[in-house]
Amino acid sequence: MKDFMLLFRQPSYDYSKASQEEMQTIGKKWADWAGSIAAQGRMVSNGNRLALEGKVLKAGGVITDGPFVEIREILGSFIVVKADSLDDATTLAHGCPAIDRGGSVEIRPVYS
Amino acid sequence: MEKNEYLKQLFQQEFSKMVAVISNLFGLQYIETAEDIVSETFLQATETWEAKGIPPNPPAWLYAVAKQKTLYYFRRNNILEKKVIPGVIAGHEKYQEPEMPDFSDQNIKDSLLRMIFAICTPAIASEAQIGLALRILCGFNIDEIAEAFLSNKEAINKRLFRAKEKLRQEKIQMEMPAAKQIPVRLGNVLHIIYLLFNEGYYSATQNRTLRRDFCYEALRLGSMLTEYEKTNLPLTNALVALMCFHASRFDARETVDGSMILYEEQDAGLWNAALIKQGVHFLEISMQGNEVSSYHVEAQIAYWHCIKDDTTVKWNNILSLYNQLLLINYSPAVALNRTFALYKVKGAQEAIKEAEKLKLDNNHFYFLLLGELFSSVDKNKSISSNKRALVLARTDAEKQMIRKKMDALS
Question: Which of residues 28-57 of A touch B (CB under 8 A)?
């Protein structure tokens, strides 16, 4: 088995308005989905969670606030999984809650 | 209590204390001498008390005799004058004939703590650490250790001998690790206590008293660590909480003849409420700070299992804790338990889909779980899964339990 990184991109969304209940439901969906991969013994790393704030540095020393300026999607976070092939890794990505909210999962082999 | 039983318990309790105090005074290289001195003391006690009756303060009697024997041994071998006293003098400006060995409560506690760190050292294999812990820290005799490991006396003696040799080779000392080192070293100590507990909880031996004694000893060592400021960390409390919750189900998890009773079928009236209460106490302390170890998560899972009512809240919590535990520490058993929790939350169809992804084809618990999941959906598949489990099961108790399930299905 090889390692693949799953990168989550989601539309920038203002979570500050979400109710606590809504946040819990989202959190639970993620946990169940990740738990399913971990239960198969295929979670290599559950990555680092990225905070919503951030800055973007561009050519000419231009710095903008927030990673979501001018792009539709923000990079949510990532995990690394074990899979036989790119297709197999893509199968694991099914059910990822990022997709529910109009986002996407990018699946990339990791060089070892 | 019967007299023999009393003596057995007394000797087991005092063994670790006395060996620790003597080894602390003369050095860990004399650990075998310390064991011999303590064993001789017990022999003398048995003979003397047989004739004259048990004295009013048995431990004090034992300490006095052990003191004489220790001084005699080390004087005769010139170890006291040449090696020990100069060292003691160097450490104190005014030398006074010390109370040697010093069996005060404080020195017993200090010596035991040092002994725990000396034995639970990553310098020796964990199997050797467990063996030494059972003998030196818990005072089990060789026959008992052999029985628990389904082994024989010679093999255990050899294992312990090699372990002590290794302690000498590695020059392990009776000393507390430096303050900075304690969290790291404590992690290893707690891991050995955890293994010790599991050894008792899951041992294949039929001797259930012995199995429980192993667990209670692990619990005692863990509780002891919560009594010292330096080792009373959230991690320690999480492990002790976990052991309390598991131990609370001793009476409910086995029939009188020793066969297993599954959680679902246990009589909650037999759960030990006092131990559960204690567990909650340690669990609360373990929550101070930000650390979330696998002991923390396992303790919380065990806590929810101490609530008999099958509520959505209970199984939702258990499911998310298992999700968390899998990320910290994957094991097939945790994966199976997680799937069972999922079944409780989302029903059989969803759980079957998840279970089939696990592909643990050599694991009888996997097929037992499938048998359970299919029981309400597809009887034939349930029966064939249980058949597969029966083929793979390892112990008679397990086979017996599976047959009972199959009888209930047909």
Answer: 28, 31-32, 34-36, 38-41, 43, 46
Residue B80's pLDDT band (boundaries 50, 70, 90)?
low
Give the whole-angstrom CA distance, residue B296 versus residue A15.
Answer: 29
Tokens 């063994």, residue?
B15
Instruction: Output the CA torsion sign for B62, B67, B73, B76.
Output: negative
The CATH architecture one would assign to domain A2-109 is 2-Layer Sandwich (3.30)
pLDDT of residue A106: 94
User: What ipTM does this complex have?
Assistant: 0.82
Q: Cα–Cα distance between A30 and A26 in angstroms, integer?
A: 6
A30 vs B318: CA distance, rounded Å: 16
- Are A89 and A83 contacting, i.e. CB atoms less than 8 angstroms apart? yes
pLDDT band at B246 (very low <50, low <70, confident <90, very high): very high
Q: Which residues from B are below 8 Å from A39, CB to CB?
A: 326, 334-335, 338-339, 354, 357-358
Say whether A39 and B324 touch across the interface (CB within 8 A): no
Per-residue pLDDT band for A71 (boundaries 50, 70, 90) equals low
